[in-house]
From TrEMBL, chain A:
A GO cellular component entry from the record: plasma membrane
Statement: the UniProt record of this protein carries the keyword Chaperone: no
Name listed for the protein in its UniProt record: Glutathione transport system permease protein GsiC
Organism (species): Tissierella creatinophila DSM 6911
GO BP: any one term: transmembrane transport
Native organism taxonomy: Bacteria, Bacillati, Bacillota, Tissierellia, Tissierellales
Domain of life: Bacteria
Role according to the record: Part of the ABC transporter complex GsiABCD involved in glutathione import. Probably responsible for the translocation of the substrate across the membrane.
Main location: membrane
Domain called ABC transmembrane type-1: residue spans: 95-296
UniProtKB/TrEMBL annotation, chain B:
Protein name: Oligopeptide transport ATP-binding protein OppD
Cited PANTHER family: ATPASE AAA-TYPE CORE DOMAIN-CONTAINING PROTEIN, OLIGOPEPTIDE TRANSPORT ATP-BINDING PROTEIN APPD
Domain ABC transporter intervals: 10-261
Pfam family, one: ABC_tran
Gene label: oppD_4
GO cellular component: a single term: plasma membrane
Keyword hit for Cell membrane: yes
Organism, scientific name: Tissierella creatinophila DSM 6911
Length: 306, 333
């Protein structure tokens, strides 16, 4: 198990390297000149060239990449073109906000999604199923920016239960996490449902019934664990999606997280910031996948033993 | 011949189990009467689709979740009806009064639960045993069915065991609560021949120890000859012939039974080609009007096409559902 873990962890390095190359290149393909943005609209051509030189943007892309990677090794992600502060500082300011939002969103959407899925699946084609799946289809179909705006207008503006924007305390997390988690909960519910239905057809479920076990025991002990093997994979992918998907939600709620930071940076062509953020997002994805694989092994004894 | 003169532990009377599929009603079991005598082994024989497994599932109340439903008939366990009782009462019978083993040992065990846990949970459900007592009982039954290192095996998972071992575990699971009846649905079909013999021997041995009655479902007449006291032959959801095992093998009356027996290779008898019954089981949507076996029967007569034969009874409770019995052998209605 330890060797497996070590192997998987080392495999993260090439993945991140490849991602960093692509991101570095593509960011520089976006039309727009950061040197001009920094210099301001009234700057002369000479000023712009000077700024380009100070920022190191006149060097070739491979050279810039080399500098960036050497910096990364020392834990230096460069300086934000927009704020002139270190990228690590800017990200550090907002990192925990996004993590908090994502974790809260994922937590409620996994619990709700799995519960809805189990009850729909075990009561297939009954009212519980129709209710659950109607909810799920709505959750998937409603765009998150619209849901966010509706929630703000009802619960923040009219009822004044929650703040409209910001990240002060737990209360400010409620509306954004509902917005962010709705579609994820829906996807998890649908996945859980079909997985439960599949597992209910298995021979070993008939065996469990033949033992005279209570239906609740059959579902929660025999069906549930087997169906979670498939669901865990989806949860992992959705977690990654949440960390990136928060871009829209964070903008709607003016939530000071990584998503809104990314939007600002793209608008400003803040190269160091964009590439560092994307790198962090992909690192999240890779790490989550690793965790999911380990979780998978925890659920399935056959993988554990190998 | 061992004559079993005991009372009936299980009586199936006029059982009709239909499947309501999208393409219409399939009458999987259509008026079946079967008696299982206490302490005896009854073989139910027939081709795929003859309704033998559905009969077993009806007795076990395992039709839930399928499209099947018992529409008519009685099933009496020890004289008490078990069809028209509450769900909860039915559940309590499963595992404790009637145990069942299935055809596919590879897929019939839960892959993510430990062997011991899967055997124990039946005990914990049906008795007041503590976990520790249940564990001891589990180890004991595993030793009884001569599974080596029983105290280790209970902490292992199904994928670590071979097919034969898994079927043994299934048997332990079905018998751990000492049920009165064991239903074995083709328990040896998926196993190779040497293991088959071991499993059959084990079932018979346990029958002596526990003293249960067995309903043995199979399409293998060789197995029937080896383990059964009585035989019921099913075709198209009906019983076509029944009697004790010697009578059926020596003096079969129904052409279908004869056909089945002729399709077993015999040692020392040289034949060019093994006999087989021509044709297939009829499509449930286009059932023949008269005798269901008539289209495949080489003795087919006019009356067979028109009217379904009733049972004709011979000595020894030997019954056959064939018009020939009336005409040639003088069986009584």
């Amino acid at each position: 198990m330890f060797r497996y873990f070590l192997k998987r962890t080392l495999a993260v390095i090439p993945t991140i390297l490849i991602v960093s190359v692509f991101v570095f290149m593509f960011v520089r393909f976006i039309p727009g000149d950061p040197a001009r943005r920094v210099a301001g609209p009234d700057a002369t051509l000479e000023d712009v060239e000077n700024i380009r030189e100070t920022l190191g943007l006149n060097k070739s892309i491979p050279e810039q990449y080399k500098d960036y990677m050497l910096g990364l090794m020392k834990g230096d992600m460069g300086t934000s073109l927009k704020t002139q502060r270190p990228v690590t500082y800017e990200i550090g300011q907002r990192y925990m906000n996004t993590v908090r939002l994502t974790v809260v969103s994922l937590l409620w959407s996994v619990i709700a999604g799995v519960l809805i899925g189990v009850f729909s699946g075990k009561n297939r084609s009954k009212w519980q199923d129709y209710t659950g799946m109607t909810l799920a289809v709505s959750g998937i179909s409603v765009p998150s920016f619209w849901l966010g705006l509706m929630l703000i207008s009802v619960f923040a503006v009219n009822l004044k239960w929650f703040p409209t924007v910001g990240s002060e305390g737990l209360k400010s997390l409620v509306l954004p996490s509902i917005t962010l988690g709705a579609s994820v909960a829906a996807i998890i519910a649908r996945f859980t449902r079909s997985s439960i239905i599949e597992i209910l057809k298995e021979d070993y479920i008939r065996t469990a019934r033949a033992k005279g076990l209570r239906e609740n025991k059959v579902v929660w002990k025999h069906v549930f664990r087997n169906s979670m093997i498939a669901v865990v994979t989806v949860v992992g992918l959705q977690f990654g999606f949440l960390l990136g998907g928060s871009v829209v939600t964070e903008s709607v709620f003016a939530f000071p997280g990584l998503g809104s930071l990314l939007i600002d940076s793209v608008n400003f062509r803040d190269y160091p910031m964009i590439q560092s953020l994307i790198l962090i997002f992909s690192l999240h994805f890779v790490v989550i996948n690793l965790v999911i694989d380990l979780l998978y092994a925890g659920l399935n004894p056959e993988i554990q033993m190998q | 011949m061992k004559k079993v003169e005991n009372k009936n532990i299980l009586e199936i009377k006029d059982l009709h189990t239909y499947f309501y599929t999208d393409n219409g009603i399939v009458k999987a079991v259509d008026g079946v009467d079967i008696n299982l005598k206490e302490g005896s082994t009854l073989g139910i024989v027939g081709e795929s689709g003859s309704g033998k497994s559905v009969t077993a599932l009806s007795v076990m109340n395992l039709l839930e979740g399928t499209k099947g439903k018992i529409v008519k008939g009685e099933i009496l366990l020890d004289g008490k009806d078990i069809v028209n009782i509450s769900k909860e009462e039915k559940r309590k019978l499963k595992g404790s009064q009637i145990g069942m083993i299935f055809q596919e040992p590879m897929t019939s065990l839960n892959p993510v639960l430990k062997i011991g846990d899967q055997i124990m949970e039946g005990l914990l459900q049906h008795s007041d045993m503590s976990k520790q007592e249940a564990k001891e009982k589990t180890i004991k039954i595993l030793e009884q069915i001569s599974i080596p290192r029983a105290d280790k095996i209970i902490n292992e998972y199904p994928f670590q065991l071979s097919g034969g071992m898994r079927q043994r575990i299934m048997i332990a699971m079905a018998l751990v609560c000492n049920p009165k009846i064991l239903i074995a649905d083709e328990p040896t079909t998926a196993l190779d021949v040497t293991i088959q013999a071991q499993i059959l021997e084990l079932i018979l041995e346990l029958k002596k120890i526990i003293g249960m009655s067995i309903m043995f479902i199979t399409h293998d007449l060789g197995v029937v000859a080896e383990v059964c006291d009585e035989v019921v032959v099913m075709y198209c959801g009906r019983v076509v012939e029944s009697g004790d095992v010697f009578t059926i093998f020596e003096d079969p009356q129904h052409p279908y039974t004869k056909g089945l027996l002729e399709s077993i290779p015999k040692l020392g008898v040289e034949v060019e080609r093994l006999d087989s019954i021509p044709g297939n089981v009829p499509n449930p949507k286009f059932m023949p009007k008269g005798c269901k076996f008539e289209p495949r029967c080489k003795y087919s007569m006019d009356i067979c096409k028109e009217e379904e034969p009733p049972f004709f009874t011979f000595d020894n409770e030997h019954k056959s559902r064939c018009w020939l019995c009336k005409k040639e052998y003088g069986g009584e209605l």
